[in-house]
Amino acid sequence: MKTNFDFLMPSVNFFGPGVIEKIGDRTKMLNITKPLIVTDTFLEGVPDGPVAQTLASLDQAGVQYSIFNGVEPNPKVRNIQAGKAQYLADGCDGLITVGGGSAHDCGKGIGILLTNGDDITKLAGIETLENALPPLLAVNTTAGTGSELTRHCVITNEETHLKFVVVSWRNIPLVSFNDPMLMLDVPAKLTAATGMDAFVQAIEPYVSTNRNAITDGQCLQAIKLIEESLREAVANGHNIEARTKMCEAEMLAGMAFNNADLGYVHAMAHQLGGQYDAPHGVCCALLLPIVEEFNIVACPDRFAELARAMGENTDALSTRDAAELAIKGMRQMAADVGIPTSIKAIGAKPADFEMMAENALKDGNAFSNPRKATKAEIVALFQKAYDAE
Ligand code: NAD
C-alpha cells in the first residue's frame, strides 16, 4: 500500500446521458480549430451514433474537422502512422477520439508520433515521452477499458505480433466524455467482453503492490456496481440504469488502475491479444480466475474483501475460504455473461507459451502483481488457462 503518491486523471470528465452535446463548445474553449476525429468505419457509419452526435455538436459550435476512420481493434502501428499522415495533410491542431479503447489508444499513438518521434516501438515503457501531445478529447463508447482517462497507450506491432504499452502522464486526455446513451447499442457479446475488462481492472489494482487508499475505494465500488449491472446490461442493452452503472464502474476502475497499476492478468492478456488478435476483454476474462488463484497466497485478506464486494457472505469462513469465494465469483460472472472457459477458444497454442511467458514478464503490468512468478510458473498458468473446462 502506498501512502505517498501522485493521483492522475483528466482535468475535466463529463459524465451522464446527453453530455456529448458539450463537445463542440469544449473543443472551441481549448482553441482547437480543426480536430482529427479518430474512429473506425463502423462507428462512422452508425446513423445518429457516437460519431454523428460528436459531429453535430462540432457543427453547431462552428468547428471544422477531418475524419480518420482507420482504427482497427488492437490498434496497429500502421493505423497510427496513417492517422499522423492525415493529421498533417489536413492541417489539424487537435485530436478527438470516438470509440472504445482502440480509438483512444490510436489517438494517443498519433499524438505520440506527432511530437515524440517516428518510431513508437522505441517508446514502450514508463515515462518515455519528452514532449506534450496535441490537445486530446476522448469520447468513450464502451464500458470498458478506461482508456479515455488513462496514461496508457496500448499498440500492437503487426510485424512482431507484440502488444506494447507506452505509459506516460502526457498520454492523459485533457477531457473525457462518458455518455451512457452512446453505449445502448453495444452488442451483448461486446458488452460482456468490455464489462469483464472493467471487472479485471477493478480487481487487479485492489491487490496490486502499488495500491493506495483512494484506489482501494474505487475498486470496491466498481466491483459492487459491476455485480449490480453487468449481467443486466448484457441481457438488455437498452436498460439505461444498467448502462449508467457500468459506465460509472468503468470510470472508477480506470481511475484505479491509472494510479495503482495492474498485474499478470493484463501482462499475459497482452500476449494473447498480440499473438492471436483476440478481443482484449475476453483475453483478460479467460485468465482472471487462473491468475488470481495463483495470487491468493500473497494477500488472502484482500481477496476475502473482494468476495464481500461481490456480495458473498463470509461471516462463518476462514480468511482463506473467504478468499476462494472471490475466485468462484469471478468464474460465475464470466459464465453468466457467456465468456468461454479455455484460451483454446481464441486459438491459443501451447507451442507459443514459452515465448509468451517471457514477454509477459517484461510487460509494464507485470511489476505490480502481488506474487512474483518465474517464467515456468507463467507457462504453467497459460497451460492451466488452456486446460480449463
Ligand atoms: P474496441 O475499442 O477495440 O472496440 C471493439 C469494437 O466495438 C469495434 O469494432 C468498435 O467499432 C465497436 N464499438 C465500439 N463502441 C461501440 C458502440 N457504442 N456500439 C457498437 N459498437 C461499438 O474495444 P475495447 O474493448 O473498448 O478496447 C480494446 C482495446 O483497448 C485493446 O487494444 C486493449 O488492449 C486496449 N486497452 C487500453 C487501455 C488503456 O488504458 N489504454 C486499457 C485497457 C485496454
From TrEMBL:
GO terms assigned for molecular function: 1,3-propanediol dehydrogenase activity; alcohol dehydrogenase (NAD+) activity; metal ion binding
InterPro entries attached to this UniProt entry: ADH_Fe/GldA, ADH_Fe_C, ADH_Fe_CS, Alcohol_dehydrogenase_Fe
Entry keyword Oxidoreductase: yes
EC main group: oxidoreductase
Keywords assigned: NAD, Oxidoreductase
The Fe-containing alcohol dehydrogenase-like C-terminal domain, residue ranges: 191-386
Residue ranges of every copy of the Alcohol dehydrogenase iron-type/glycerol dehydrogenase GldA domain listed in the record: 10-180
Entries under PROSITE patterns matching the protein: ADH_IRON_1
Family membership: Belongs to the iron-containing alcohol dehydrogenase family.
Name of the protein this chain belongs to: 1,3-propanediol dehydrogenase
Taxonomic lineage from the root: Bacteria, Bacillati, Bacillota, Bacilli, Lactobacillales
